Automatic annotation (TrEMBL):
Its main location: membrane. Signal peptide: none annotated. The lineage of its organism: Bacteria, Pseudomonadati, Pseudomonadota, Alphaproteobacteria, Hyphomicrobiales. This is Cytochrome b. The keyword Nucleus does not apply. Keywords: Cell membrane, Electron transport, Heme, Iron, Membrane, Metal-binding, Transmembrane, Transmembrane helix, Transport. SUPFAM superfamilies: Transmembrane di-heme cytochromes. Belongs to the cytochrome b561 family. Its cofactor is heme b. Residues 10-184 form the Cytochrome b561 bacterial/Ni-hydrogenase domain.
Length: 186
């Protein structure tokens, strides 16, 4: 990943669209995942929500792959010079961890569903299916399920921290980190 900062003050339009689309979808997936597992009892509704979760997950996977590729060739805007060196390092570390966790949750979800002994494929629009990654394997599926759950909860905590950090920049430090991810001039 290119880490050298450039003098730009804002993320480009492409960077912002990718960030906010992925952020919205991932928040939706966290909420939907919790809701369908913990709150829905009706089997038919549960089934529909699981299918929606899987299909949306496939779309998030594609979008995150595009985003990660784009990011490999694009430098981030420079962080404010007022930001202490250790905070800059923590910020970059947390962002890298967010990418890692998102891909971890996605891959675990994909393996879990692929290895399931109940053959319910990931549906795509137009009647297509995502091919299974591995052959049915009960133990693998159950382990991937546990990993999917655990990583999703770590991701939830880190997203909470990330949002608090963005607010801290705006309200406490009063620098331009939050604005750099918002549309505007300059
Ligand atoms: C960023 C993407 C994703 C996020 C944030 C996410 C999040 C979650 C969460 C929070 C839960 C509920 C865990 C619980 O309450 O214990 C869950 C469950 C589930 N997820 Fe995902 N998920 C994602 C992607 C995927 C993908 C790609 C698949 C498969 C293609 C998938 C399949 C499932 C299934 C089948 C369950 C239900 C598990 C059960 O019955 O206990 N998820 N997910
Ligand atoms: C209200 C919600 C959110 C706000 C205010 C917000 C704000 C920001 C800001 C200001 C940055 C740029 C930081 C910088 O330039 O150093 C950023 C980067 C980032 N955000 Fe968010 N964010 C939010 C939600 C999310 C969510 C839900 C995710 C996904 C789990 C996410 C993932 C990321 C990642 C991975 C980066 C690093 C971008 C990169 O270096 O490629 N954000 N966010």
């Amino acid at each position: 990943m290119i880490t050298a900062a450039t003098p730009r003050r804002r993320w480009s339009g492409v960077g912002q669209v990718l960030h906010w689309t992925c952020a919205g979808l991932i928040l939706f997936m966290l909420g939907l995942g919790l809701y369908m597992v913990e709150w829905v009892d009706d089997p038919a509704q549960k089934f529909d929500l699981y299918q929606l979760h899987k299909t949306t997950g496939a779309f998030v996977f594609l979008l995150m792959a595009i985003r990660a590729l784009w990011r490999l060739f694009t430098a981030a805007p420079a962080l404010p010079q007022t930001m202490p060196r250790h905070e800059q390092l923590i910020s970059k570390g947390v962002h890298l961890l967010l990418y890692g966790l998102i891909f971890g949750v996605l891959i675990a979800g994909y393996v879990y569903v692929s290895a399931s002994t109940l053959p319910l494929p990931i549906e795509l629009p137009g009647g297509y299916h995502v091919p299974n990654l591995v052959a049915p394997d009960y133990e693998l599926s159950e382990s991937a399920k546990v990993v999917h759950h655990r990583l999703a909860f770590v991701l939830m905590a880190l997203v909470g921290l990330h949002i608090l950090a963005a607010l801290k920049h705006r309200l406490w430090d009063r620098d331009e980190v939050l604005q750099s991810m918002l549309p505007g001039r300059g």
